Amino acid sequence: MHLIVDANIPAAEACFSAFGRVTRLPGREITQAHLREADALIVRSVTPVNEALLAGTPVRFVGTCTIGTDHIDRDYLAAHGIGFASAPGCNAEAVADYVLSTLLTLAERDGKPLLERRVGVVGAGNVGARVQARLQGLGLEVWVCDPPRAEREGGAGFAGLDTLIERCDVLCLHTPLVKEGRHATRHLLNARRIAALAPHSVVLNAGRGDCIDGQALYQRLAEQGDITAALDVWESEPGIDAALHQQAAIATPHIAGYSLDGKLRGSLMIHQALAGHLGAPSALTLDAICPPPVLAALTLAEALPVEEALRLCARAVYDTRRDHDALCRRAACEGMTAGFDACRAAYPLRREFATLSVQLQGDARVLVAPLRAAGFQVR
Ligand SMILES: NC(=O)c1ccc[n+]([C@@H]2O[C@H](COP(=O)([O-])OP(=O)(O)OC[C@H]3O[C@@H](n4cnc5c(N)ncnc54)[C@H](O)[C@@H]3O)[C@@H](O)[C@H]2O)c1
Ligand SMILES: O=C(O)[C@H](O)[C@H](O)COP(=O)(O)O
């Protein structure tokens, strides 16, 4: 069996070589010609998988080690009997870490405590529900917009997007890119809604870039300068709009989910799905491919103010400013498109909040509940 595997997939050998010969290629460069003798294709989100790529190839299984599936033409796969698997939830913890790290940083920069903010979560699936739970656990008022869930579960606990815009001063987008239908998300945050955002509000997008009208957001930021944007995802990645990049307070190259844990969970989930597809045994576990964290524990010996303690622990594990700075630096040296992808390809080792055990001594014990709510282990 021959497998074509995106070169940005960690533990590809451990996860896929048991099934056959593995050839690794940059995801954006995989073409139909590479698949002439391939039986399986394992991608991340940067390879559009459709008829143009697969027609006439022997590929019988496609796996994407990502949560998002908007790059996959699933109808084509189903119509041609090609097996498919994605990795739902694999990096959801990492995205929730990114959200907390980013909001804590913006709170410090703007002098507006996060714990006093009212947050709207748009799209409350694996990612959004975790963000909601962490923020509610910290005592914040959280409003949720998720029409598909509201339809399935009844409207209680959900509100419309316009209500969130009216009531909240932080809006976090965690929607998939859905191009058509009643719940389409392309330009969900459109010019009208961007104009309706209250002054001093924060917009954070860690879903898909196309869910926001980037041009309209740019205009609001550049012309009024009264709102703050934290953008991890962009229209037209990797060739993103340099002007919008300049205006974003935190601008990162689609790395919100890039914890080692999250990426390896994605690889493992596709390994398991391929084993199932082939009827092959699989005993591989996350522990077998994921090393222990470099920073496993820290001790707080004094009671800091809650928000300060959260920032300190968050930054010990993951500081969103590092990724913002890296993109600025690389874009200045290599140009935006190359810099964007270079940051992603050379992404530094990052672990999840849950890998840090915080020991609280004496008065610092008052921090047990908030640190736990934020996602850390607490002793
Ligand atoms: N920035 C990153 O690194 C990163 C990482 C992981 C996922 N993502 C993106 O985030 C998306 C969400 O991830 P997830 O794991 O929570 O997916 P999920 O499928 O578990 O949840 C998506 C939620 O969005 C809701 N939704 C759909 N249409 C909506 C609409 N019009 N308005 C409001 N809500 C709507 C769905 O009902 C669902 O509950 C993924 O599809 C992916 O595109 C980005
Ligand atoms: O959908 C996902 O899981 C995320 O967007 C993921 O982080 C994408 O990773 P990439 O394909 O860009 O490496």
Overall description:
The relative contact order is 0.12. The protein folds into 3 domains: 2-86, NAD(P)-binding Rossmann-like Domain (Rossmann fold, 3-Layer(aba) Sandwich); 93-251, Rossmann fold (3-Layer(aba) Sandwich); 297-378, 2-Layer Sandwich (Ribosomal Protein S8, Chain: A, domain 1). The radius of gyration is 21 Å and the shape is globular. With 379 residues, it is α/β, with parallel strands linked by helices. It has helices at residues 12-16, 51-54, 74-79, 92-110, 126-137, 147-153, 161-167, 191-196, 214-224, 242-247, 260-278, 286-289, 306-317, 320-334, 336-345, 368-374; strands at 2-6, 21-25, 40-43, 61-64, 83-85, 118-122, 141-145, 170-173, 202-205, 228-231, 250-251, 297-300, 357-360, 377-378. α4 (92-110) crosses α13. The strands form 3 sheets. Strands 7-6-8-9-10-11 form a 6-stranded parallel beta sheet, sandwiched between helices. A 5-stranded parallel beta sheet has the order 2-1-3-4-5. A 3-stranded parallel beta sheet has the order 12-13-14, with helices on one face. The chain is built from 16 helices and 14 strands. Helix content is 40%, strand content 15%. The model has no long low-confidence stretch (mean pLDDT 98). It binds nicotinamide-adenine-dinucleotide (NAD) and 4-phospho-D-erythronate (DEZ). 4-phospho-D-erythronate (DEZ) binds at residues 8, 44-46, 66-68, 91, 254, 257-258.
